[in-house]
Amino acid sequence: MSDSSNPPVTTPGGNAIQARPILWLITLVAVALSLFQLYSAGIQPLGLFYQRTIHLMLIMLLAFLIFPVFGPRRKRGVLGWAIDILFLGGALLTGGYLVLFLDEIISRAGFWSQTDILVGCIATITVLEASRRAVGLGMTIIGVVAILYAFAGPRGELPWLGQFLPGILEHRGYNIDRVVGQLYLGQEGIFGLPLGVAATFIFVFVLFGAFLESTGAGKFFIDMAYSATGRQRGGPAKAAVIASAGMGSISGSAIANVVTTGAFTIPLMKRLGYKPHQAGGIEAAASTGGQIMPPLMGAGAFLIAEYTGVPYLEVVKVSVLPAIMYFATVYLFVHIIALKQGMQGMPRSELPQMRQVMRDGWHFLLPLGVLVYLLVMNMSPMRVGFYAVITMVVVAVLRYAVWFFFVAPQQGQRVTLASTGFMLWAGFVKLIEGLELGARNAVAVSMACAVAGIIVGIVGLTGLGLKFSAMMMAFSGGNIVLALLMVLLASLVLGMGLPVTASYIVLIVLVGPALTAEFGIPLLIAHLVVFWYSQDSNVTPPIALAGFAGAAIAGSKPMATGFQAWKFAKGLYLIPMFMVFNPEIIVGGPVPVVIWNGVIAILALCAFAAALEGYLFTRMSLLSRLAIVPAIVAVFYPDLTAEIAGVVVMTLAIGGNWVAHRRELAATGIRSG
């Protein structure tokens, strides 16, 4: 479940002579990492530091091998190789030192030797450089700024920096021994909770997603969505919404989802009549929704569970309704555009048949069934991921064996010793490809979590989180709406340089205490709000990452596509606010209250989409559109009288639009179906 900013994997190597050995080395390290993760997930769990240090060491080795120091388009050369070898050595030292001397390091906790501090400095620099290559410069800069902030102050290594800090951000300052001890030798820095989640839960599900991808599950889910919705108005766009909901949760990356499902859906949407920037925007909004869709929610469900102490299954259960609300909104936008532009569905002859789709790919549902069943049985998510991967491999092997030994002979292919050997070799290669792809896909998210650990460690050391809480109270004046808008803006700014996972971690550490302690928002809702807002950069210009990926496939202008994605993804902003003012849909309450809140939320989102597009059953009058705006505000306000008034206004506006539609049909002599 790589983050949405995961850059494309490029062929490493300085030239053609170097490329092949390096590719073999990348494969070797990647397969070793995946096998290590499977071993520790399902066979022999390891201690906290052993698991995380070995994971980070292998991840950094991959990062330095895959991403050359001067970028993918330039040869490494002698200087490049010299630098890369130094950092490869730093990666080995980072993990090897802790694994070999862990007992001695623990015994002298707080009284570090100079060797401890030196290795810690090398490890920190190595982590920051690996992050620069795998995640991007933005993450590294924020990590460096955090370290400089720790050094600023009268007792710090750089006391002169303290004079540039505003009064509320001042602190005593810390020396290099204290900072390195926090970041490398303790449990609250590089090897803290973010990397712990990446090294356990996230990796094994990334690996599961890689095996699904390599065995063709993506096409199965897309075909299934097309066969279900293709004949409806705007069918391909609706199929994109459904397929992206399924694949996005597994892939963990909005951009990866756009380029995989979008490669099929965007051209079909354009052919049906959607404008290029609309097609790209629809796919971007739907793919972003995959990150908030249970059961996996990208990496978010695991992180939220770890930070809040709420069981993983509970996080998944409470996230179902908000995710359905989001996709219902995107789906309605798609339907309204199809109605406005007079689109029809695709002819049956051009669509896959559900019976044939299920016959060819039913086996892909078995691993997902095992996954969901084991989660419901409250098994550890890491062990669940292990069994899901094993099930996926076994199912793929059995499926291919049945075809080879029973179906192929009926089609005239002879089963010989040579062909059997070739089949076994092809299966082995496929297995290696899946193991390698899973490790490659995990590099960016693991490095993001490692640097996020640096930031979290500095925040804990300096008390920055409490300072941010005081700033939020001061700037918002205690107004919860203004505070949420500040979180939204901060998420947008952070998202321009950070992947979703890192943005969520940084934000929740900084603003989480204020949302819960000062504004009284329940802990789980505060985390869900920040996690939803962290998806913002995927669909909000000027840095709409998923929107720009959709534009590349659609051949449209990036900014125009980004604005369309922003419009279609409006539920990303409204639904978290609804959670805050109507917490019963998350934390529970009397059944009638929960049902009422769910109904009015869906009604408000539908009315909002209709007002924004100016169309529902037919074109809406300006008066109706204007009336819907305060009605939506009333529905979000936590007062029953205001909610009822808002529901009445929206019902009248929508009902009036339906009556106008019926009159138009009667006037043209057409009977509605």
Radius of gyration: 26 Å
Largest sheet report: none
Oligomer: single chain
**SSE ordering:** HHHHHHHHHHHHHHHHHHHHHHHHHHHH
What is the number of helices?
Answer: 28
Q: Runs with pLDDT <50, length 5+? A: 1-18
Strand proportion: under 5%
Topology, number of strands: 0
Structural class: mainly alpha
Shape: globular
The percent range for helix content is: over 70%
Mean pLDDT: 83
Distance between the termini: 44 Å
Account of the protein in words:
- By secondary structure, this protein is an all-alpha fold.
- The chain has 28 helices and no strands.
- It has a domain of 83 residues.
- The radius of gyration is 26 Å and the shape is globular.
- The two termini are 44 Å apart.
- The N terminus is likely disordered.
What does the secondary structure layout of this molecule look like, with pairings?
Layout (H helix, E strand, L loop, with lengths): L15 H27 L5 H19 L10 H31 L6 H21 L2 H15 L24 H8 L9 H22 L2 H13 L5 H17 L2 H19 L3 H14 L10 H9 L3 H29 L13 H8 L3 H12 L4 H30 L6 H46 L1 H13 L3 H16 L4 H19 L4 H11 L11 H10 L3 H11 L2 H11 L2 H4 L3 H23 L8 H15 L3 H29 L5
Helix pairs in contact: 1-2, 1-7, 1-17, 2-3, 2-7, 2-17, 3-4, 4-5, 4-6, 4-17, 5-17, 7-12, 7-16, 7-17, 8-9, 8-14, 9-10, 9-11, 9-13, 10-11, 10-22, 11-13, 11-22, 11-23, 12-13, 13-24, 13-26, 15-16, 17-20, 18-19, 18-20, 19-20, 20-21, 21-24, 22-23, 26-27, 26-28, 27-28
